[in-house]
Amino acid sequence: MDDIKIEELNLYEILEVDIKSTTNEIKKAYRKKALQCHPDKNPDDPSAGKKFHQLSKILEILTDEAARCAYDKVFKGKQEAALRHKELDSKRRKLKEDLEDRERKAAGKGVSEKTADQKLKEEIERLRKEGSKQVEEEIEYIRRKIQEEQEQSANFSDGTKYRIKIKWPASKGDSTNGGYTQEMLHKFLSKYGDVQALVMSPKKAGSALVEFKDRKAAEMAVDFEKGLATNPLTLEWIGAPPKSTNRPTSNLVKDSDFESVTFMKLRQAEERKRLIAQMMAEDEET
User: Fold this and answer.
1) Model confidence pLDDT, tens digit, residues 176-206
2) For residue 147, which of 76, 224, 234, 276 sits 20 to 30 Å off, Cα-Cα?
3) pTM over 0.85
4) Domains of the chain
């Protein structure tokens, strides 16, 4: 992906900034664009990686004073030439092109343009060898930002996906509740995976809610668990069944993040209790 022809691109137009924009304005525009086209946020777009790489190369040029100066010289020269070219009609344009071609061959005209192009290429090569600390910092910023978004989405969304309603035949006055206790239900269900919460209705016989930690565990419970042969269970998803996700997870937590992660888990537990209680209340009303 190092075949990007910087000299042929309008870097300011791609970032949607003005040629007079400051370095901070350019970084801000880069972050906005980079977050939109990052490969992790566009797994179905095969060109996402190339777009992100191009943005990083653009940032590298426009945040390096010498490289930006060399690019601006070539860019402005081409703009001025294009403007002059546009002002000529087709016949005069052809005559002008022929004349300029003869002049270059005869007297070596156009040396300054070649020098400007060559200077830009030299600056691009220098950056390729030296690298850019500013670009590395911005790429790291984008990586952290996307990771935060993914973790936040996982923490506050995934937990709500794996809730199941459990029913079984039981009469209102049955002191045995159809033969099921909370401990018995937990034993039946936990063999499929971690049970995050299990609540039996205190008023409605033959009714409970369970929340699994993992999608696979919840799916297997719905598909296979029947409970007692003499009084089978019926398990149904609360809402639509969750779609399969392939998001990678990490078990590594930095010491500096432990406190915030612990607090987040506590908030999730409280929210889970509130939601389950709410669903149980709605279930009892039916």
Assistant:
1) 999 999 999 999 999 999 999 999 988 889 9
2) 276
3) no
4) 6-146 (1.10.287.110), 161-285 (3.30.70.330)
